[in-house]
Amino acid sequence: MKHRYSAAALARHALTGKPWPRAWRAAPPKTDYDVVIIGGGGHGLATAYYLAANHGIKRVAVLERSYIGSGNVGRNTTIVRSNYMMPGNTEFFEHSMKLWEGLSHELNFNVMLSQRGQCVLAHGPSQFDVLARRGNIMRLNGIEAELLERNEVKALLPYLDYSAESRFPIYGGLLQRRAGTARHDAVAWGYARAADDHGVDIIENCEVIGFERDQDRITGVRTTRGTIGAGRTLISVAGHSSQVAAMAGLRLPVESHLLQAFVTEAIKPLVDHVISFGAELFYLSQSDKGGLVFGGHIDGFNTYTQRGQFHKVQNVAECAVAVMPSISRLRLLRHWAGIQDMTPDGSPFMGRTPLANLWLNGGWCYQGFKATPAAGWCMAHTVAHGEEHPLVRHLALDRFRSGNGYDEYAHGNWTYKQ
Amino acid sequence: MLIIPCPHCGARDYTEFRYGGDASRPRPAHGTGTVNEWHDYVFVFDNPKGIHREYWQHVQGCRQWLVVERNTATNELSRAQLAREATRT
Amino acid sequence: MSGASHRLPTGGRVQRGETIEFEFEGRRLAGLRGDTLASALLANGVTLVGRSFKYHRPRGFLAAGVEEPNALMTLGNGARTTPNVQATVTELRSGLIARCQNAWPSVNFDLKAVLGGFAPLLGAGFYYKTFMGPRRGSWMFYEPFIRRAAGLGRAQHKSDPDRYETRHAHADVLVIGAGPAGLAAAAAAASGGAHVVLVEQDFVPGGSLLGTPATSAHEKWRLKLVAAAQAQPTLELLLRTTALGVYDGNMVALLERHDHASCDASRGEAREVVVTLRTRSIIYATGALEQPLLFGDNDRPGVMLASAARTYLNRYAVAAGRRAVVATNNDSAWHTALDLAAAGIPVTLLDQRTTADAALREGAAKAGINIHWQARPLRALGGKAVTGVLAALESGGREQRFDCDLLCMSGGWMPAAHLTTHTGRKLIHSVGIDAFMPAGLDAGHFMAGAVSGHFALSAALIEAVTAGAAAAAWAGRPAASLPPTHLPVPDQACGFEPAGAPPLRAGSKAFVDFQNDVTLNDLIAAHDEGYESVEHLKRYTTLGMGTDQGKTSNINAIRQMNLLRSTSAAETTTFRPPYVPVSVGALVGRAIGRHFRPIRRSPLHDWHVANGGVLIEAGPWLRAWYYRWAGNSAAEAYRQEMRVVRTAVGVADVSSLGKIDIQGPDAAEFLNRIYVNGFAALAPGKARYGVMLNDDASVLDDGTTACLAPHRYFMTTTTAQAGEVMSWLEFLLQTAWTDLAVQVVSVTDQWVGMSLAGPKARVALELALPGIDCSDASVPYMSVRELEYEGMPLRLLRLSFSGELAYELYVPADHGVALWERLLARAAPLGIKPYGLEALASLRIEKGHVAGLELDHRNTLDDLGLGKMASRDKPYIGRELRGRPELQAPERWSLVGLECLEAAQRLRGGAILFADGEPQVGHGRGYITSVTWSTELDKYIALGLYQGGLKHVGETVNCAYPLKNESVRARLVSPLFIDKEGARLRV
Fold first, then answer.
1. Separation CA C890–CA C861 (nearest Å)
2. Which residues pair with C970 in a beta bridge?
């Protein structure tokens, strides 16, 4: 790293008033690259970084149609965890967790990984058993997990609703202490800066408008800033995978849905943990800045509008008060939305497409942010070797043809699950 | 909030409806169709940014399934028909 | 801080006869009716009201309205503590308790102000560059300090004792903002009978006119406009009501505040109400927000927006200072200077321009105002209060110090166009005002007044009347008569010159975002580091992310970033709803506690409650879990209830099962298509268990369907899937199979269902319903009879979930309790007892019936051991995709039974299965789904899924439950634990 960040450097700059250099260059596009990554989000930038850092592939461009981090990496509720149960998922997300744990050092950029623990609540005996299965598998795979009875949840999170008035009384919970949150924007910036340091070109305001192809082989991309040749091309555009894939003539098992997120005014520390409701999809944490951040279910119909329905705002607010009655008095400051790829089984696609040299990383549903480091790591390996990384082989684009769906939460066909 | 003009019940909030997804894909006739045809019908979507033909059921009203045309870039609804009478134009 | 009154002897729009007492920082103070908390504090000489977020700098009032970034206070105490409330919008009420926040020990003497000394270290994004060492995870050491330092006010963990409501409303025309434009537009729109809702966030209508002297012509005009609006019978004026956001379908969320008075929750009075308003058209008359000037230490208490000083003076009769300097780059601040001078306050005016509106200049000369042209402030002087300003005069040729205790500033105005962007529209940059205004609006949306970038009253009035007429016409109720468009008062002068880059003094800070302590230096640093897109700038510096959402900072930041980048790139950050923060409780209304989600209750619910039934949530239903007759806990009671069913007879409420009436000549064909097994040949009087799949071959549901008569069927579904199945059947009939003549109707609520099970079930039935022939010959296994008993329609099905001789009885809902009580009373000699959900679930486990966690969308028909049910002779839904290779793989996990081999141990749901002797790591070979104590077998038994399934029957497995450090040995067995031949069913 040419200009390392540290407390000493901070002091030096403070004393001298010397300006910091750009975190990443404003690179103009070259005529061709070994690898072109479409999408300057967390996953695309992470992939670029690991291509350079792990595989020595440095002629890499990241093309971003807007500013980097403008998609879901900067719109999510920042939760990081590795409480996954299905073979493949357990290992992949734990690999991600381990990368998270070293990420600030790796990137020399404080991504503020805050391992304050996540507690998933159960509201009845059978939900409790589902959590137990998850927790047992975590433990059997060397991942810490604790199953809490109601009184243990109450000791840990005394401010939740344990009253007789509760519509869905808390029955127990599953705690992963290593889970927590990270500063989402910092992840994009940190990967961008570190990738740039390796010579990766990060090209903002550069929208892909088509592919260059030779028969069934992709040879480059057409962009608003000219045509760029590419040895290999990766689509990494969460929320808009169908749009970009369609330019290559591909149809995907993906629909684009809208997920809203919410933040209250900043207050002094009130909630230490990440808390997930069990009766409905709802999750809550407090940011370092002091706002309570929460999110819920998708709005429920596919859209690219990036603005949510008010009904959902009320719905999520109801969940918030149901979990933690004192939230009633706090004030909602802002709600926003991101477009996410939804897939039939809730799991992503990582790997080859029917076109040679065109690779896909998409379909992340609710779980893109926590996957960022491992997705970058595994996609870099996959693109570098022309062969899927072992941790992502189960996430093939054609898995529904063979019947190998990967339904971690048993949600089934989500379009009907509203 | 999204308002759906139900041919039976008039303009209603989308919260009275259940979304049923893409209505443009042809469903293989019962008892026919290859695995691949059923795969494409069940799992593959155009997911367009623009006009989208989609199913909605008025579950809290007349219980009729509708075919609605909506622009996914603006959420503007241009058409709503009973599914049993839906025509493609 | 002086305790002397700053209230002027005359003027203002406050009720001088009505004194209101309140408490501030433990002191008892008094204000007047019509005051805000801010104006009352200023009247009492309180100017230091807060400490800034990062540097703990002393702060006073910057504004007089909704844009205030500094004066955030904590109101109330105990469970009614509300942090972060803007004093500038808080209507003064008797007994109000207010405290400053983010200061220790007090706002006047804040030890954390020492942080200001480290300011060079704490620049934009400093935390991204440090707190990483010495080792991985070190952030966890630093983070608690950062977290404690961050945040604004302190919230409570107590439940909110106040009440909130939500309501729906409709309008032809919604007018947002009751300033002069909004009032005129609303009156115009309502003139032809359109239902107009005019909302105003303030508690007094008039908008900018409230800043004019109370004796002026403008005030007379304001009263006339209000009277004209109120004279319209179809116009509804809602004060204290803020438009939070504009959503699809012309839906606007409004927040009504009622906490200006005491709201007694016990009398059902709501503190706040969220209104979901649907309207045909919208008129935005939201005005504009004055912007600060950037100069050194522009955050000192006493530095105030010029319009705010004018409002305090004219609306509240409060002199915010005794000696004023007004610094401006536009005409509007001259009105402040003139009014201050008229109130006897000496005024110096620093205008960065070379001239101003002629009438203003003339007035200023007459008033003896000391005017400096091409003059701008360099730095405010003072600490906890401003004591003067150092200014550059003659275009920087000369510097001069001016003493003052009030420094008014105006950097121009930004249209309050936030709401217009909520539906996805962008704002464009307007050179004339160096700010952003709506480029266009959605169809049916109109705007009037300053929001459109037209700051002159004359233009606003014309625009308002035009917009009112257009909105009424759009709504289909054209205006009948339009108000005059001639402005009856002197116009507002609107000369403006962009402020440009501020000249800065070393060692001083120019604040751009006051609340989040973002300075001009932070902007420069962000630019240096490449965070130059406005969104990067916002995210990197936290600019505009405070409770004020950047109402006084966004535009200045964009202006300065454009200067740094030498561009005129015109983009704003996205304005997100809500326009002002809204209590979460108000969004929720009454949907709290038990009312969070609707509760479905069986018609027998009250009986259960009255007779020792303990209830449990089962999806939306509350069901009887167990009964106290059998024990004091579920674990104790279900065994007792099982024994009754296995040895005598029990009755369970199964009303929550989905029930669907299916009729039509093609009904048999329909059923034959949706179930994997054949239904075409199901004869009248017969019932059959069936399983249906989704198109993707996952199991949708199982249940029993009975043929009541030719073309007439009665289907039952699981409780959980009742809604899904119903919609699915309707989907098929209305989209794919429109040629089938079939009608389906949900009758779940019409019929009460009860399951009568046990070896004495037939006797019990005969005792309860004497005369009915329920012999095996008459009602054989898997049959149905439609009967009428003493005028009560009764559907009697002979089927069994428990494996015992059993009947399901269905009667119309209002006969439920009668039949239930009759069964229990008449069969009492047999020892009949009610049994609950826990026993139901346990009984079915003993018979290997799948339910609950076995039917989880991942497991296929074959996984559940039901593959044999699927017909080979007919198509059914899901058949094609069921054949995919991975779904037919021989080593898939499939249904098995398990018997516990360790007497002192128990099996647990969620345990992971390993073959005997293999290391317990990884994902195992299966898992346990359902567990019960078998009263028949005297041991724990379970259902689960295991790799290869029944091929491994007889093998020993280990059930690992590392969460409790357990591993229990069990034997794999057939899931049919008891009565394998089904002899008990057919007696």
1. 14
2. C900, C957
Interface of B with A (CB under 8 A): 1-2, 13-15, 18-22, 35-36, 39, 42-49, 52, 54, 70, 72-75
Q: Is the ipTM of this complex over 0.90?
A: yes
DSSP codes, A40-67? -SHHHHHHHHHHHHHH----EEEE-SSS
Residue-level pLDDT at C149: 87
Spell out which residues of chain B touch residue C884, defining contact as CB-CB under 8 Å.
Answer: 35
pLDDT over 80 (residue C156): yes
Q: Which two tokens stand for residue A329?
A: 């008095």
**What does the pLDDT profile of chain B (89 residues) look like in tens digits?**
899 999 999 999 999 999 999 999 889 999 999 999 999 999 999 999 999 999 999 999 999 999 999 999 999 999 999 999 986 54
Residue in this structure with the two tokens 């989209």, named with its chain if needed = C735
DSSP code at position C734: I
Residue whose pair of structure tokens reads 């790829």 in the numeric block: A341
Q: b vs e for C915-952, b when ≥16 Cβ sit within 10 Å of the residue's Cβ?
A: beeeebebbbbbbbbbbbbbbbeebbbbbbbbbbbbeb
Is residue B88 included in any domain, yes or no?
yes
User: Which residue range(s) make up the domain with B60?
Assistant: 1-25+47-89
Helix (H) or strand (E) holding A133: helix A125-140
Helix (H, G, I), strand (E, B) or coil at C633: coil
Beta strand C413-415 with C288-290 is antiparallel
Strands C347-351 and C324-328: parallel
Q: Which residue has the higher pLDDT, C127 or C261?
A: C127
- Mutate: best of B22, B34, B38, partner C, most C CBs <10 A: B38
Run of H or E including C461:
helix C457-474
- Residue C134: asked if its preceding bond is cis (omega within 30°), the reply is yes
Cα–Cα nearest to C334, from C302, C297, C309: C309
Identify whether the C-beta of residue C748 lies closer than 8 Å to the C-beta of residue C818.
Answer: no
How far C428 CA sits from the closest chain B CA (Å)? 20
Q: How far apart are CA C882 and CA C886, in angstroms?
A: 9
Q: Indicate the Cα dihedral angle C971, C977, C979, C984, nearest 10°.
A: 170
Is residue B35 situated within a structural domain?
Answer: no
Query: Are A329 and C155 a contacting pair at CB < 8 A?
Result: yes
* CA atoms within a 13 Å half-sphere pointing along the CA-CB vector of C924: 30
CB atoms inside a 10 Å sphere around CB C882: 23
Q: Would the CB atoms of B45 and A309 count as touching at under 8 Å?
A: no
Q: What are the CA-CA distances from residue C771 to residues C268, C446, C790 (Å)?
A: 55, 76, 11
The span from the CA of B77 to the CA of C339, in Å, is 53
Phi and psi (nearest 5°) for C773?
A: -85, 105
Nearest-5° Cα angle at C216, C214 to C217 = 130
Identify the residue among A240, A254, A297, A304 best suited for mutation to test binding to B, counting B beta carbons within 10 A and taking the highest: A304
Chains near C, with 3+ CB pairs < 8 A?
A: A, B
Q: What is the pLDDT of residues C628-651, one digit of tens each?
A: 999 999 999 999 999 999 999 999
Three-class SS of residue C598? coil
Residue C796 has pLDDT above 80, yes or no: yes
DSSP H helices, C60-153, are 126-129, 139-149
Residue C1 scores a pLDDT above 70: no
Q: Count of alpha carbons within 13 Å of C265, Cβ hemisphere only?
A: 11
Number of domain units in chain B: 1
**Does pLDDT of C3 surpass 50?**
no
User: Does some domain include residue B30?
Assistant: no
Nearest Cβ partner for B83 among C249, C723, C734: C734
Please report, for the domain that includes residue B52, its CATH number.
Answer: 3.30.2270.10
Examine residue B63 and state whether it is found in any structural domain, yes or no. Answer: yes
C-alpha to C-alpha distance for C280 and C444, rounded to whole angstroms: 7
